[in-house]
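User: Second chain of the day. Same drill as before.
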Amino acid sequence: MERRRIAIIGVGQIGKHHASEYAHVGGVDVIAVCDVNEGEATRVAEQYRVPHVYTDFRKLLQRDDIEAVDVCLHNNFHAPVTIAALEAGKHVYCEKPIAGSYRDGAAMVEAAAATGRMLHIQLGTLYSKETKAAKALIDAGKLGKLYHARSTGFRRRGRPFVDGYGSMAFTQKATASGGALYDMGVYHISQLLYLLGLPKVARISGQTYQEMEMLQDRREQSKFDVEELGLGFVKFEGGVTLDIVEAWAIYLSSFEGSSIVGSEGGIRMPYRTSQGAHSFSYHSTVADLDLNATIDLDSMDSRNHLLNPNEWAYDSSQGHWAAALNGLVPLLPTAELALNTMLISEGIYMSSTLGREVTAEEIAASSISTAIDLSTL
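Assistant: Same format as last time:
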């Protein structure tokens, strides 16, 4: 591959993770980093041998030797920085969620189309072995007609900052717009939208909660005003349905993981944990016998890599981006997946507020920009 020259905007927790991933991916050179914290930007640049440091992303975008940027900022900064980069002629890889609102995400997608540049959103679950096995079974017709899916995400007590992990920016609508749905739900909902073939959303109902106790000083410091639990039910055109439960914190021991069922079979995709993943399973009927089967995902993955020279391009979001920049594989529709995930999440918020089911058209029409006005900074 040719070496593509890219830059990272934002070197906080996510930016550092992206920089680490690029260090293990071929085909790209990170030649600049940018952050308002010059000291931290300099430290990260030194760690990853990045030659140029900026504190103003606008000056970075003036470089004509950078063809793509990686936006690793908080949600409400995604749209203004991404759109500015696209209009400066750069391809953009943006951290999830796509933005702080559906309207801002749609503006990003429209800007990419208008400028003819690629827009890639970090949706890490698309590259998991579980997703690949599920897609293989679905594409082979082993589930038959798909009709229902379940999206779940579980933490017992994993609210950012108030439970000891992450920063206060995750817990405030002013910077993050949403809580568990935007932070974790994006991974699980987008994964299922991808496997279902991106069906068009028709109607959504949902409810959000923030009920569990937290340390009082952390509550006051964090200004915690987003949900810790989000629940939803989505009806798609054509009759497919999806139910959603996403928890930063809940008094239960676990959820069972996401699943998809069809007329001829079903799949279950449990979570990966520090102890490893519980078995991916396939369920069907064979010779009038109920079949519950597990799959050797590692053997599947090894065989795929032996047979397909570009399989590495689907091992990680950064690897996929490098391969797409080099024209080796077409970019997965991550922007469209992320935008539809945003539509669903915002629909759950809207339904929770109004106390009724809402339509996709209502959500899109009522969505407002939550983007930070960068001219004031």
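The first helix runs from residue 13 to 22.

User: Great, on to the next one.
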